[in-house]
Amino acid sequence: GEDVEQSLFLSVREGDSSVINCTYTDSSSTYLYWYKQEPGAGLQLLTYIFSNMDMKQDQRLTVLLNKKDKHLSLRIADTQTGDSAIYFCAERDDYKLSFGAGTTVTVRA
Amino acid sequence: EAGVAQSPRYKIIEKRQSVAFWCNPISGHATLYWYQQILGQGPKLLIQFQNNGVVDDSQLPKDRFSAERLKGVDSTLKIQPAKLEDSAVYLCASSYDRDRGHHEQFFGPGTRLTVL
Q1: In this complex, how many residue pairs, one in chain A and one in chain B, have their CB atoms less than 8 Å apart?
Q2: Sign of torsion, CA A90 A59 A38 B69?
Q3: Most buried by CB count within 10 Å: which residue of A4, A105, B17, B56?
Q4: Which of A7-21, A26-40, B8-22 has the lowest mean pLDDT?
């Protein structure tokens, strides 16, 4: 299967941490990705994790992968107003990406 | 490095008309993708090219959609005739070479199509 599910909305206070969750169904996925989309723009690759890893950290971003539960999360530390956007989780299988519907993150002062 | 370029950025047409979108991938990228993103949804792959050959068009509605990538660089996506449900953002992406394990896809800004 290629279903990727995400919660639709997240509201977070500036300076707090944001955690965006995603579940996927394809156990043969090789890579899992997080993309960011700002209004009127295309998708920007934020980070990715290979399926044999369980954690990856990149500056303010931390990706956690629980392969047994097929659960992926993205933690953004010290969330800023510029982090307000839609975040998409995607899984890759056989060169094809399948995306979730996106989580709209709103950062409030 | 210049990113993926797409044009036009916006297009409004009436149903049953035809429309074409253009994409110029990042220089040197062998793999090119077209996605359809309907409002409130994630992108859905329509077609994937490796150089100028099609490697996956299983999700492309071939009765009305067509795409080509002549000379393995620029690509055009055409809809003829358009339906109301084709209203969406059409995203083009490229990656260096999927056959050599280069998996990161870089996206253009998209073309927003409105069909009235």
Answers
A1: 51
A2: negative
A3: A4
A4: A26-40
